[in-house]
Design brief:
The structure is a single chain. This protein is an alpha+beta fold. It has 4 helices and 9 strands, in the order ββββββααααβββ. A hairpin with a 4-residue loop joins β2 and β3. The chain binds zinc ion (2 copies). The site of one zinc ion has 8 residues, from loops. One zinc ion binds next to loops.
């Protein structure tokens, strides 16, 4: 799944071992710096600070902020034991919860903003739809906007 889009030149910074927050296991990573800019497909949803750098897991191909390399494993785990909470998020998203609300719920449950965004992104598996009227994003399986009942458009990242 691709969460991040890049524009500009990518410069390798380093590599090593880290605890991948998606694999939940030790993995090899590559640390890359974007020379120009780093854009996030979720910009309207997830305005997060721009580091211009990321680490990519060789196991799952997931891209994360460089800080994950320095975090001890447990701080990357979703609060509440991981699997269960993520399944709950998946269920809510499938029922039509807008993505930004899911992120909000997860942060209210004690997750960091970053962890919440990663969980929602993982739950959507990169497949999203979009309500042009409400400017809300949903999981791709959602048939209609829960707020205005309008038809959703596939969101092309
Ligand atoms: Zn991984
Ligand atoms: Zn709508």
């Amino acid at each position: 799944m691709i969460i991040y889009g890049t524009s500009g030149r990518e410069i390798p910074v380093g590599e090593g071992q880290f605890h991948c927050p998606r694999c939940l296991a030790p993995q090899h990573f590559r640390h890359t710096r974007i020379a120009r800019y780093f854009t996030l497909y979720f910009i309207p949803l997830f305005p997060i600070s721009n580091h211009g750098e990321y680490v990519e897991c060789s196991g799952c191909g997931g891209q994360f902020r460089p800080e994950v390399v320095h975090n001890p494993p447990h701080t990357n785990m979703p609060v509440g034991g991981g699997g269960q909470l993520e399944q709950a998020v998946r269920r809510e998203l499938a029922k039509g919860m807008p993505l930004h609300l899911a992120v909000q719920k997860l942060t209210e449950a004690g997750n960091s903003q970053q962890a919440a965004q990663e969980m929602v992104a993982a739950a959507c598996e990169g497949q999203m739809s979009y309500c042009p009227r409400c400017q809300c994003y949903f999981a791709a399986a959602v048939p209609a906007c829960v707020q205005c009942q309008g038809a959703l458009q596939p969101y092309q990242a």
